[in-house]
Amino acid sequence: MHRIFIVEDDKQIARELRILLERNGYEVALTQNFDRVPLEVQAASSDLVLLDLNLPHVDGHLICKEIRSQSEVPIIVVTSRDSTLDELVSMNFGADDFITKPYNTQILLARIASILRRTYGDKDHSALTHKGLALDTAKSRVSYGGNDAELTKNELRILHVLMQRHGEIVSRADLQNELWQSDEFVDDNTLTVNVNRLRSTLASIGLGEYIRTKRGLGYMV
Amino acid sequence: MQLSRFLKDKAVSLAFCLITLLSIALVLYVFGLSVLQIVFVDSMLLAACICATILDYLRRRRFYSELADTIECLDKHYLISELLERPDFVEGTLCFDALAHAGKDMNDTIASYRIASEEYREYIETWIHEIKTPLAAAHLIVENNRNRTSEALDVEIDRIEACVEQALYYSRAATLEKDYTIRANNLESMVKASLRKHSRALIESHITPQLEGLDFDVYTDAKWLDFILGQVIANAVKYRTTNAEHEAVLRFTKESHEGTCIALKIEDNGIGIPKEDVSRVFDKGFTGVNGRSYPKSTGIGLYLCKKLCNKMGLSIDLSSVQGEGTTVTIVFPLDTRDFVE
After folding, report:
1. Chain A contact for B155 (CB, 8 A cutoff)
2. Is the pLDDT of residue A29 over 80?
């Protein structure tokens, strides 16, 4: 399990971020003392730092620089200022990524996952299992009871969302939005086609009634 | 300064001169001087009078013509005294000193307003960045507690965010400062980024975007263009077709203009704009017939688009057929040398 260190002075955001990240399978550590952030980062032996730039009394850029001078831990800078200059300075001071507030949580999670994958090269986060169905997002393959099949990009994304939120009804708009976020601007009909194809792919490996339709609400696995 | 106008102005003193000359001639005649002697004395006096007038005219002409010429080619008239030499005749110096005084006062007043507006802008920017923290917190709370109430709140938070963003760009558009960076940006990825950002609204109103041939670079500030595209997309969502049989579309296409510029055409098939309103859509505060029949029109969105485009050296146009749709065209110049200044 990866440990994420959050440097954030707003208590509410820090608290909610902690809940969000813990729910998504990360361990979370928070800053206690803003004057000793680089030391705390080292002490916590974290795998990734989420750093807010606007901190009380200290300059976030300097903290970024100090952390970087001591370790190679990936840093994602979070800020409410969206100027190109801020972005440039952060990158120069060794940040790995730059996100502006108010951020989309899905994008934040995706960036965290991708940086962790790049840095630590592990694949365990790319595999999802539910009811005996295993989804390997890195290879875009599903397997069930010894059979396996390849998924198209859209099918993979749809199944990924459904499995991530298993036991929950996922609306068609949510699925459509998920596809839009990866530049597949599909309409209603195309989504239906994609879901049907996904169903027949799953049926071909012996999983007939996996995706249930909730009329007027959406889909659920 | 024309000589005739100058002489007209001097008419009274010239008349006195003439009267004096005639009186002198009369007196001398009474004293019994010969005609030749009288003519000689009068010519001397006349010559002195003419010389004095001409000298007077020349000194004034230099100052006043310079004043008239300079003020004509100056775009900030109140700076006139900075460009003139102080004249050496008394009315001129009085006039010059008054101008210099007024100009300085004007400069000071403008500077104080400029500082005040700059401070206000800084405050607005700071405020906007401040408010993003509670907004981010609100989004996170919604994300961690998904239910019908929180999702309804999320939509409202999105609306607050849109208003905040508009305020940010309003303050940016109003300043004299140049706080944008023009760079080559891929148009397709910028359009896609804007579509991703507004995906919820588009999906909910069943609008399908279509992109065609946008894979080329344009010179613009990506964040500013994102805001402009956002306003156009928001309008397309708001004024979408009410005809259920029509599928709502939003088409992004490229249009080339004889190799001098490239245009992005954004067409929707929404309700369109009445003919008499089209020419005024970019006016500040203009809402028109559609604005009055739909809630929440402020007449600010397109006004800001136009202003931001002008600042970046782009042009934006809108055409519409009522009941058929609206087309917004943003023209990007190809020649980057326009941006060197």
Report:
1. no
2. yes
Residue B243, classed as helix, strand or coil, is coil
Q: Is the pLDDT of residue B136 over 70?
A: yes
The tokens of B125 are what? 């920017």
User: Could you give the CA distance from residue B150 to residue A173 in angstroms, rounded to a whole number?
Assistant: 17
The amino acid at B81: S
CA–CA dist B167, B173 (Å, integer): 10
B137: left (phi over 0), alpha (psi -120 to 50) or beta: alpha
List the one residue out of B214, B243, B239 whose CA is nearest residue B326: B239
In this complex, is the C-beta atom of A176 within 8 Å of any C-beta atom belonging to chain B? yes
pLDDT band per the 50, 70, 90 thresholds, residue B192? very high
ipTM for the assembly: 0.79
List chain B domain ranges.
3-107, 121-174, 185-339
Domains of chain A: 3-120 (3.40.50.2300), 126-220 (1.10.10.10)
Residue B236 makes CB contacts below 8 A (sequence gap 6+) with B207, B250, B266, B268, B270, B326
- The values of phi and psi at residue B32, to 5°, are 90, 25
Q: Where are the beta strands (DSSP E) in chain A?
A: 3-7, 27-30, 48-52, 75-79, 97-100, 127-130, 133-136, 141-144, 147-150, 212-214, 218-220
- The per-residue pLDDT for range A49-84, each reduced to its tens digit, is 999 888 877 888 888 888 888 888 999 998 887 777
Minimal-distance CA residue of chain B relative to A10: B133
pLDDT at A120: 83
CA angle B212, B213, B219 (to 5 degrees): 120
Class of domain B185-339: alpha beta
CA distance B161 to B154: 10
Q: Which residue of B has its CA nearest to A103?
A: B136
Evaluate if residue A33 carries a pLDDT over 90. no
Residue B116 pLDDT? 92
B9 in contact with A, Cβ within 8 Å: no
Of all residues in chain A, the one with the smallest CA distance to B144 is: A20
Q: Say yes or no: A16 contacts chain B, CB-CB below 8 A.
A: yes
